[in-house]
Amino acid sequence: xxxxxxxxxxxxxxxxxxxxxxxxxxxxxxxxxxxxxxxxxxxxxxxxxxxxxxxxxxxxxxxxxxxxxxxxxxxxxxxxxxxxxxxxxxxxxxxxxxxxxxxxxxxxxxxxxxxxxxxxxxxxxxxxxxxxxxxxxxxxxxxxxxxxxxxxxxxxxxxxxxxxxxxxxxxxxxxxxxxxxxxxxxxxxxxxxxxxxxxxxxxxxxxxxxxxxxxxxxxxxxxxxxxxxxxxxxxxxxxxxxxxxxxxxxxxxxxxxxxxxxxxxxxxxxxxxxxxxxxxxxxxxxxxxxxxxxxxxxxxxxxxxxxxxxxxxxxxxxxxxxxxxxxxxxxxxxxxxxxxxxxxxxxxxxxxxxxxxxxxxxxxxxxxxxxxxxxxxxxxxxxxxxxxxx
Length: 390
Ligand SMILES: [Ca+2]
Fold this sequence. Notes:
By secondary structure, this protein is mostly beta strands. Helix content is 12%, strand content 35%. Strand 3 (77-82) and strand 4 (87-91) form a beta hairpin. Calcium ion is lined by residues 249, 286-287, 312, 368, 372, 375. This is CUB domain-containing protein. Residues 1-18 form the signal peptide. Pfam families: CUB_animal. Residues 96-214 form the CUB domain.
């Protein structure tokens, strides 16, 4: 149970300060009674009790508040006082060749926080801190490596790879703020390996990826089969390396994005993100030449069927235009092209899906040129819609 305390959302820390203070007092009494010799032999869960408060360092990393000497003993970096000076905000960081065995360890580039420009392979081994860890969440706080090549958008200069867990797409380029969930299996399974391969042209690379270890019974655990998992009534989903100006849709992608169905919400609306300062949005450009107007394309069809999605697509179960009255009697599962709409059109529309749980699947094959040019990928804002009585 104490293991879960380490993983409580950050928001609880502010209200948890008083609780931590109570723990601190009781621990201080225990320490007085038992002496420092015994403390070295306390079971690991007792140590975690100190760390139930999350804290943040001035450099932006999150850590756990714990006694300075325990932080150092566990290989952490004391990053400043917390809990009224009683503890230190303990940050865990690892880079090439390192091992991450603490919840919240950051995988950073060599020279962090400066950039690195070497070529080679940088590997981090993630070990479960407890057999009851089922998932690993990677938060790309900061992530910038060389992007894909410009013809077929394949990550063959730099690559970020995850191995040892559930399949994850190879990514490259910029993915600040993105995340991934990796299934780590049950029990003491094999480690998960994170690898950044850097090769080719000189580039100022930098990354800071936070690794959270999620217990099998945690409410924060993602639903099965979801590479990305979002909670909340509204939010934004986007493909990796998305940027309307310089991003390129990555090839060889195949994964699911899940959105937790919030209580009393029955359907979901998706709208292409705004593309500020442009008269033609590029926030949904999966196929065609994105340097000119490309209509939406829908449905699977067979190879060569006009206006259908046979190479790259976003799957939205039974998607319909949201504000058409009366509502269309048919729906589509795949959308691609250069305009976001559940019908073939060159005008963007909001799309609705009533299939629960709310899920999207993104597929991109290994070919872009010559048909697909300068595709950016997708960025969609979603808003869950309340259930109505009728
Ligand atoms: Ca494409």
